[in-house]
């Protein structure tokens, strides 16, 4: 993993718990196809493809089902159910449903996170000299980042991002031109020789949004919200599916205790989980970007202090596998950010700072291995 042109983490020893860092590198269609197949094999699951939800069915203040329409014919069907879960992503239907039912909408917490990015699937030969996964993080003054992952069937997914709202590249040639600004030369040359598969896909993102269902005074029974419909995090951080899984586990745990007061218990538990990721993203923002122009003097001081401490942690991580492991566990949402505030961790970082003069570090080696995929 690179920050600017420098290796961020120690790679000379083994983690104490390497199994927690196992990765499965696949394209999204490959992953979703296999997950869907496994779910379809469950005896009590049925898929209703080619339909759109029109509106919920209600009795007093409880959702009792939904009306759905077949796209091909417009035929409307009513589905009676005990629980409706809105998993429709960043443009959820629940807020419209709440309006119809006379409930207030949840308040929103937003953090500006402007980013545009482009993704291109590539085909490479089996013996191509390219690591399984490479991250290239943005740095203050250089708002570029990306990820290059080797996936199934000799494919590579290349994603390049710009931490502003500049137009993203729309062709493979434009992506290579952008990559030349911050990707190591050897990696660029390998990508240049790859064969594009399909077109470049572009994405624009302005804000991280947390809809505070956990703070609502009332919510209809029989309805819940999950995934990006609750909290949409910066997609470049790669936290979306992990957060959705954490929320699904929270729902499972709540259902073990019955369905009484389910919405309040579920949203309260989910709010605590989201708060952890939200805090981590706030803490690490100074590492990748400059102080916002609109920041007050106090905010600038705090931002610069966080940037200074983040730099100290990463400097220490280059020489200490335990610090590296702690940072990665927090980044992978396995541990809470407070683990990086424990006295033992802080003292370990400071010990490295005291031992070494703060001199410029050597550029990262030619091979930019970050984490081995499976």
From TrEMBL:
Q: InterPro entries under this entry? A: FAD/NAD-bd_sf
Record SUPFAM superfamilies: FAD/NAD(P)-binding domain
Q: What is this protein called?
A: Epoxidase LasC
Per UniProt, what is the name of the gene that codes for the protein in this document? lsd18
């Amino acid at each position: 993993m690179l920050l600017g042109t420098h290796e961020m983490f120690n790679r000379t020893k083994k983690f104490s718990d390497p199994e927690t860092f196992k990765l499965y590198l696949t394209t999204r269609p490959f992953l979703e196809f296999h997950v869907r197949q496994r779910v379809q094999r469950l005896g009590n699951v049925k898929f209703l493809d080619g339909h759109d939800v029109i509106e919920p069915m209600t009795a007093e203040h409880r959702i009792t089902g939904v009306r759905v329409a077949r796209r091909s014919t417009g035929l409307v069907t009513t589905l009676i159910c005990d629980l409706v879960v809105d998993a429709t992503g960043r443009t959820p239907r629940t807020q419209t449903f709440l309006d119809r039912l006379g409930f207030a909408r949840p308040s929103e917490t937003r953090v500006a996170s402007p980013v545009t990015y482009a993704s291109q699937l590539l085909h490479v030969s089996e013996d191509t000299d390219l690591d399984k996964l490479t991250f290239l993080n943005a740095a203050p003054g250089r708002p570029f980042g990306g990820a290059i992952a080797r996936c199934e069937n000799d494919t590579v997914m290349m994603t390049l991002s710009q931490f502003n709202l500049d137009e993203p590249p729309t062709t493979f040639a434009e992506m290579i031109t952008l990559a030349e600004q911050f990707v190591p030369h050897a990696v660029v040359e390998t990508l240049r020789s790859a064969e594009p598969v399909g077109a470049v896909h572009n994405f624009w993102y302005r804000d991280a949004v947390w809809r505070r269902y956990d703070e609502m005074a009332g919510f209809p029974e029989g309805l819940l919200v999950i995934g990006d419909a609750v909290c949409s995090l910066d997609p470049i951080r790669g936290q979306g599916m992990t957060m959705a899984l954490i929320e699904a586990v929270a729902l499972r745990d709540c259902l073990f205790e019955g369905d009484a007061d389910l919405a309040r218990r579920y949203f309260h538990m989910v709010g605590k989980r989201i708060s952890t990721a939200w805090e981590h993203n706030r803490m690490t923002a100074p590492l990748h970007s400059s102080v916002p122009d609109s920041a007050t003097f106090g905010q600038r001081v705090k931002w610069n202090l966080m940037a200074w401490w983040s730099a100290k942690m990463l400097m220490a991580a280059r020489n200490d596998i335990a610090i590296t492991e702690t940072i990665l566990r927090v980044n992978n949402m396995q541990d809470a950010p407070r683990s990086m505030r424990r006295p033992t961790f802080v003292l370990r970082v400071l010990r490295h700072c005291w031992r070494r003069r703060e001199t410029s570090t050597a550029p990262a080696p030619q091979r930019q291995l970050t984490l081995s995929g499976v």
